Amino acid sequence: MNDKDRVVILAIESSCDETSAAVVVNGREVLSNVISSQIKIHKQFGGVVPEIASRKHIENIDRVVADALSEAGVTLKDIDAVAVTYGPGLVGALLVGVSYAKSLAFGLDLPLIPVHHIEGHIAANYIQYKELEPPFICLVVSGGHTNLVKINTYNDFDILGHTRDDAAGEAYDKVARSLGLPYPGGPKIDEISKEGNPDSVKFPRVMLEEGSYDFSFSGLKSAVLNHLNRCRLKGEEYREADIAASFQKAVIDVLTEKAVRACEEYGMSKLAACGGVSANFALRASLEEACGKKGIEFYVPRLILCTDNGAMIGSAAYYEYMAGCRGDMSLNAVPSLKLGERRY
Ligand code: KG4
Ligand code: ZN
What's the maximum distance between 2 C-alpha atoms anywhere in the chain? Predict the structure, then answer.
């Protein structure tokens, strides 16, 4: 029998190149978080190949779910709800998780909780910090998204700003490719930047209109590519670590400035970061330092909870479950699902 005060959720994530399943209790306690990464396969192609991602999810999902249950020391009988990422992401990849979760929920007669992938990233902070509660400002920096979000309650968000072109992670990956670094480029740039001089090249900091919380990284990306081409054409020597560190500094200066300004403008004493790019060493240090100076509490999940994982979906799902949100057998994948939107 399940205790009502204890909600055990089996969560499934398959929106991109990670097949993951987790068992999470009351949104905060992770009993297991199994992640099967396809990075090695996609690396050969320099990026995620959607068709291959879908096939690998199909091959992996059964085992990943079985491992998540056994690592958690539970069986399907102990589960109170099945949660799944239904967007945004790659349609074929999302469909694998959505179909699997629907069949489990139907077969076991359990509630089905559809989860927005970015709401999952935000919720990773609830796992890391058991005491963290809304309201707070959250900087979402992933491969597909860059947003500044005001988290009003667990289920209510205001988007203060978004990227007008490339997401931060996308810019990292593209700049890394131009430096000849393998996919995914973010972690590689992070690594080599530690040896570089961030002030060696002054790349543009695109702030946009005064007061805007939007971002634009494509101009910066082009500036890096132009700089590299110029050096190569003129036969000038350059250090990859210096270019990487200078590029990264330009991204981080903008992210830090806008995130801290949002906290001040909205009178928020808490700033959280999430998404793959929040694993970045220099970004974490910069946000931490800027928050420290302004008396703002800074939150960021441990590295494994920054990139895609099932536990974050299980955490977000708990708050959806408590708010009475339920999907049914008509649930579909929504590749371009907006933050705060429900499409079921
Ligand atoms: O959140 P995520 O795992 O997937 C999406 O939802 O998009 O983010 C993946 C992105 C990739 O662009 C990757 O290069 C970037 O996060 N990333 C990093 C780091 N680790 C992952 N970027 C900078 N520094 C890192 N350490
Ligand atoms: Zn993600």
Answer: 73
191, 60 contact by CB (below 8 A):
no
Tell me which residue has tokens 């590519």.
225
**For residue 168, which atom of ligand 1 is closest to its CA?**
12
Pairing of strands 81-87, 112-116: parallel
* Residue 17 contacts residue 305 (beta carbons within 8 Å): no
- List 215's β-bridge partners, or say none: 163
d(CA 123, CA 308) in angstroms, rounded, equals: 12
Whether the CB-CB separation of 20 and 12 falls below 8 Å is answered with: yes
pLDDT tens readout for residues 259-282: 999 999 999 999 999 999 999 999
SS3 95: helix
Token output for 300: 């960021």
Contact 85 CB / ligand 1 (< 6 Å): no
pLDDT beneath 50: ranges in the chain: 1-2
Backbone angles phi, psi at 307, to 5 degrees: -85, 175
* 313 C-beta neighbours (distance < 10 Å), count: 35
Q: DSSP 3-state assignment of 137?
A: strand
- Residues contacting 242, CB < 8 A, separation 6+: 196, 197, 200, 201
How many other CB atoms sit within 10 Å of the CB of residue 298?
19
pLDDT of residue 39: 87
pLDDT value, residue 1: 42
- Around ion ligand 2, residues with a beta carbon closer than 5 Å are 142, 308
How far apart are the C-alpha atoms of 58 and 238, rounded to whole Å? 44
Running DSSP on this structure, what letter comes out for residue 303?
A: H
For residue 181, the ligand closest to its alpha carbon is: 1
Tokens of 189: 């740039």
Is any atom of ligand 1 closer than 6 Å to the C-beta of 172?
yes
Q: What is the pLDDT of residue 207?
A: 94
Cα 168 from Cα 230, distance rounded (Å)? 24
What is residue 46's predicted lDDT score, i.e. its pLDDT?
87
